[in-house]
Amino acid sequence: MKKILTTTCLFVFALTLNHSLQAQEELKWPGVDASIMDMAYYPSRVALRHFAKSDVEKNAKPVMRVVYSRPLKKDRKIFGNLVKYGEVWRAGANESTEVTFFQDVKVGDTKLKKGRYTIHVVPSEKQWEVHFTDYLDRWGSYGFDPAKNTKAKITVPTESTDDAIEAFSIMFSQANGGAHMLMGWDDTLVRVPINF
Fold first, then answer.
1. Separation of alpha carbons 85 and 134, rounded Å
2. Is residue 2 included in any domain, yes or no?
């Protein structure tokens, strides 16, 4: 009986080990995406507040954070070509660009409650229509309905940059009454005022 029990235990162990080894061999990690995911905070160094030297920086609280993927220019003409004028664009690559507000804010004349939103834009040569939406956890702007999903919308003028921006970029800058969310790529920049 003892010999049968030992043999059975060894057989079960061998099956388990074999299954585990097969699972490891079949596991394939995804490759590195060409459009790297990035993140920006306002205030810009708030995520590093535990390493700050001043009490002001140590006690800072995050107001907002944006998470987005950064497509590259790669010698292409971007706006009006790769990103079509008059069509909805996800403001980045891959999943829709997502902004988290850690407190209530105001975009244009619209108050937004703290929480998660995605950003979709309709670019034109002279201005961008920027939508803050409840269209969460989606790839791109596929299926996005501005009339149904937009919670706040603002139209902002485009600016030309001195130098071409190779990777689509988002950052925040301090402004009267709040901050500007800057979005830039190629030779174009927009500033989206967010008040709090």
1. 23
2. no
What per-residue confidence (pLDDT) applies to 1?
A: 55
CA distance 177 to 131: 20
Which of these, 109, 103, 108, lies nearest to 64 by C-alpha position? Answer: 103
161 φ/ψ angles, rounded to the nearest 5 degrees: -95, 155
Residue 60 has a pLDDT of 86
Q: What stretches in the chain show pLDDT beneath 70?
A: 1-24
Task: Please state the φ and ψ torsions of residue 174, each to the nearest 5 degrees.
Answer: -65, 145
Query: Alpha helices of the chain — where are they, by DSSP H?
Result: 2-26, 55-58, 146-149
**Phi/psi at 180 (5° precision):** -105, 135
Residue 182, domain member (yes or no): yes
Phi, psi for 57 (deg, rounded to 5)? -70, -40
